[in-house]
Every structure is written in C-alpha cells, then in structure tokens.
Amino acid sequence: MAHRVSTELIDRQGSELQRIEYTPGRSAELAEELDVINGEMHKMAKMREFNDDPGAFDRILRSRVERKETGS
Fold first, then answer.
1. 4: number of CA atoms within 13 Å, CB side?
2. Global pTM?
C-alpha cells in the first residue's frame, strides 16, 4: 500500500503547525515534491547504513535530483 502526501495534509500541516495558508496550486506542488522526497528516503533507508557516513544521505539525494533535472 503506497502512502502519498496529499494536498489536504499539506494544507492541514501548514495551517496547524506553521500558521501558513497555501494556494491550491502551491499545495499540490508541495505535495508532489514531498512525496518524491519521502519515497527516495524510504528507498535509501533500505539500501544504506547512514550511521557510518551521515553525509551520504545528502549526497545520494542530491545526485538523484541532479540526474532527474538533467534527464540522465
């Protein structure tokens, strides 16, 4: 079962925790971005042991973003 970040979650968390109101379009953008980040984090957590090299997570995430942006 896939857990997706919804626009409703973004709106609720923004309102309740940050006192921020987003436009519907921005809520959708944030939901999509966070869904990708969460998915990548779960994949990497299964693949790596970050206790030995805490900076590895950031390097892996950045490299995946860069590949996605360049289409590599």
1. 6
2. 0.61
